[in-house]
Fold this protein.
Amino acid sequence: MVIYINYFGGANLNTKTEIKKREKVDSLYDSAYELFTTKGINDTAISDIVKRAGVAKGTFYLYFKSKYDILDKIIMRKSNEVLEEAIYKTKSKDFKSFEDEVLFFIDFIIDKLEENRLMLKLIHKNLSWGVLKRFSNEYEGIHKIYLMFEKGYIDSGLTKDEIEKILFIIIDLTGSITYSAIILKEPAPIEEMRPILFDAIRKII
Amino acid sequence: MVIYINYFGGANLNTKTEIKKREKVDSLYDSAYELFTTKGINDTAISDIVKRAGVAKGTFYLYFKSKYDILDKIIMRKSNEVLEEAIYKTKSKDFKSFEDEVLFFIDFIIDKLEENRLMLKLIHKNLSWGVLKRFSNEYEGIHKIYLMFEKGYIDSGLTKDEIEKILFIIIDLTGSITYSAIILKEPAPIEEMRPILFDAIRKII
Amino acid sequence: MVIYINYFGGANLNTKTEIKKREKVDSLYDSAYELFTTKGINDTAISDIVKRAGVAKGTFYLYFKSKYDILDKIIMRKSNEVLEEAIYKTKSKDFKSFEDEVLFFIDFIIDKLEENRLMLKLIHKNLSWGVLKRFSNEYEGIHKIYLMFEKGYIDSGLTKDEIEKILFIIIDLTGSITYSAIILKEPAPIEEMRPILFDAIRKII
Amino acid sequence: MVIYINYFGGANLNTKTEIKKREKVDSLYDSAYELFTTKGINDTAISDIVKRAGVAKGTFYLYFKSKYDILDKIIMRKSNEVLEEAIYKTKSKDFKSFEDEVLFFIDFIIDKLEENRLMLKLIHKNLSWGVLKRFSNEYEGIHKIYLMFEKGYIDSGLTKDEIEKILFIIIDLTGSITYSAIILKEPAPIEEMRPILFDAIRKII
DNA sequence: TATGAATGAGAATTCATTCAT
DNA sequence: GATGAATGAATTCTCATTCAT
């Protein structure tokens, strides 16, 4: 016995289908993130990802082009999450100086990364201004940081470009030092490096 | 029938054999370096390396455990080469201040990396003090930088640890910014970033 | 556009796919058995097996972990086949004594193994009670032998354990002697050894 | 500077050279035995053997044709050792019956194999009369067992062939049961199997 | 005799991707 | 949209054997 279902019937456009679809995609994101952070990117196969996500292999290719496609998207999602939260917390406070504001912002990010070392390992080297800027249209958080900085340097007489470069240097330095200090504990644990890093940032600003 | 025994006895260092051996190993290093920098690490197979080197596959495994083994060794070799040369050039000059000395040193490294972008791509952010220190016993260049810094801060009242951390920050920052500026041209080409980086370093010192 | 859905719903047992799948697995079993018995285990490569089976290499690894995995499964399958048939034939006859029943059973097995020397070579001394018992849950034949024996010793006053040990000795001895006599012709061909073996078994019972 | 040594000079025929040679061969035997018993035959490479023996790879091929060549020789050496000792101990005692003599002999072998389970694992399936007989010219122990049996059956009226077959059955059964009981502990540990095996042997004799 | 660097064929295994269902 | 069996090229790695020294 066979049942005929019209392809364009109401059933396939309803919410249930859409929810299921989103569930699968999210499941793939979560699974890939979990495996990338624990096993490493090279040692994670698509088959591992789908197995953990509980979906079929073909489904992966319905939503992502390759392992590196999903990786890029994960990095941007996670980076943006951290930055959005850091911006939000920074904005909800008052500071006597721009310097204090930037240091609070950096401090918050370091705390977040320390809490989640595996994520740090994954986004390492990718949390740089260059990469972030590429996605700034898609992700809110990234653009907001720039605006914060522009406002801070409003009376400095510096050009927009110069401001951006300084911001870049600070973010790059933070990412780099934080990674070394937290993951490699080189040249010292993060608690020892934090004041030295802050001192350097203060001087740069 | 007569056997010829070399003066150094049976356990002698058979020169012909040893030379051939070194030639093969060097050939593997060169071949791997060439392929890693042009095709990328993931897209380079061991069979590619040995084919280019003109040796048998087994020979590779005689000297290296895996692709990542030879990669690590290449990164250390190349990093050390750059540092050794930078140290050598710096020492052969006179400077009116320690600050000038460090900036010359950094400047030389940036020039070298700019000349050889593929190498920069390969050693990427591995040119950090943390990684270097791990190999400092094996590689001369690395230790020499530290000595230069120690001398520079001789009257500063800073402890050895503090000096090392500052050195770490400077090298890390340089590596990170240089990579972005030269390879990604983000946030600006190296010529625009160089004065800003130097300014930051001068402030940190 | 219309989608046909089979009566059993989405989770249905897709017959066509399942049949194809089973065909491939069986083909691998047959191919491996053929090669193991003719070329030997060490000289049979996975690539030989799949080539003969007409499937891709990856398909092998879809169903078996390694060469030794398929070997174990083949040995159990073949051993079970022989035992099932021997049990079946024995049960379909009447005997004046338990001794006669056991000897008929053993005799049938020896005949079967003689007919198929290559199989004997492969399962060699693996046709032992110990190995069989491990698989007795999966394979019917194995359990049935035990039941036959238990019934034979019903009035002997022996414990279950003691019965099992005697059965073990008889099967082990049969397997061992049959192998030597048929394959190695040592110390004499099977026809000369059969009466002596039967005499020994009769004494043991 | 070069020293000329005449190839046929006294130096190369002297005892020192011979001793060194024997040391190397013995070292290879010991190393191979150790590795075969601990890692298994398939998982032992010639390179493992020579490394452990402390000799060069080429040296192995000076004395053995292949892995299976040295394996065969080891099995015969070890089997013969056990049998020689068992025969020696049996002969140095007086027994009231031939049956007692055989059981003592078997008992001694079981004890020896139990002491050295790894050896049992290795020679397993090879300690059969068939194999032993093939080497009886080279190894003393093997021939002596036959003589012992022939003497035991001197007044039985049995032919030489019949005696040999009985001996074969007993040795095969012992080897097989001992292996299962000691290594696999199937169907029961050796201590439980020993009386049942002895009972079976007594009945066969 | 003894060495051990070199070989390279070939073994096992993986995995991204496709496609019929 | 979803599935997962099937593919087979590609890759890593092993190892018995040779041979110049």
Q: What stands out?
A: The longest strand of chain D covers residues 2-6. Chains D and A do not touch (no CB pair under 8 Å).
